[in-house]
Input
Amino acid sequence: MNNLPKVKIGIVAVSRDCFPESLSVNRRQALIKAYTDKYDATDIYECPICIVESEIHMVQALEDIKKAGCNALCVYLGNFGPEISETLLAKHFEGPKMFCAAAEETQNDLCGGRGDAYCGMLNASYNLKLRNVGAYIPEYPVGDAEDCAKMINEFVPIARALVGLSKLKIISFGPRPLNFLACNAPIKQLYNLGVEIEENSELDLFEAFNKHAGDARIPEVVKDMEAELGAGNKKPEVLSKLAQYELTLLDWIDAHKGYREYVAIAGKCWPAFQTQFGFVPCYVNSRLTGRGIPVSCEVDIYGCLSEFIGTAVSDDIVTLLDINNSVPKDMYKESIEGKFDYKHTDTFMGFHCGNTCSKKLAFHEMKYQMIMARALPIEVTNGTLEGDIMPGDITFFRLQSTADAKIRAYVAEGEVLPVATRSFGGIGVFAIKEMGRFYRHVLIEKNYPHHGAVTFGHHGKALYEVFKYIGVPIEDINYNQPASLPYPTENPFK
Output
């Protein structure tokens, strides 16, 4: 991924001055060793200047971690901790922060060696609230060196998403297609999240595309496309136009990124795109997304925002799919029932025309867009990448602004089943526990659009924490609740 920040977490140990400073020093050293023994040592930086006991120490530590290039912070309570200084450190650090605390080590040293950080975490959390400072606090934030190292490692993808959002620009090309209000949403929440947006006309994009005609780099890009497609290169005649379009987008990013470091694109693909450009952009979208530059379809701004968050959390390729169609009963009975632990209503098909990266498809072919070709000449609908999505664990999720500019999100973990779809596009048979209830009482009830972002793996825990951190109300972070936990709108008499 070449469109994501590298996280560097400054580990700052703190100590209350009536407790032995050596507790914090020794426990910090043990924590650093536990982390570097098991995880990537470049993720963290040990602040050596001091153990923070006072406001002066806080300033010194803050200057040190800034100088070291840290873009995230871990405040480590080696003992009870100085509640004012440690929360001021978090307040004045510009970037994501977390708190964790040291557990007691042995029953044989509970006098001079007792640190009381279990108690100190309560005071730290109270002071954070007093100062309106947000911080990530793990589910159980007190542990030994190995436990706290694991907590910090789990913070890495969360911090990567948060740092990325703070330096993200979304570039859109509109207007949104006619009869496509589903992905319409106010952009005010983007600014609340610290995300910049540049909205452009489809005509601006068309002009830039035409200026790239005959670009000397096109043959090289075509060659790279041919290598990726291999035997699936069924539409070689369109590759030069697709290469021209890819170069147009990449050059636009370079010219329009401005002061932001990371970019995502909300692109246009119909109804005039095909007839004017002479192709559909799905394959190019898949290639950029495969490099860590998410490109959503149909000018779905919050879709590409969700994709970027998923890319950051998973450090992997994502995709954007329609929650599209039901699984036929005969397919369920033949290929799923008795083989996988899912009810029929737990299953559905996720689909889009051809924007999923080839690395996430079980097989792939360059084809034409069947739905568009029902009303247009086939030759202007070439450019989709079709194939069944690779089986395995997934997380379906979305961050969305409502029509009245409130922010909400959902997260649901599941899997793509190894079941042949017998259909077209980039498509897979998905299974999520209690999907039928989730579909009715979250997706429909709360007016989510049909597009959902997909990470390839279970990343619900990190996504949930990202959404909490950026201020999505807890009651508006939805998930697929088990049957034993009814939704507020669920009829109890069913």
Observations:
- The mean pLDDT is 94.
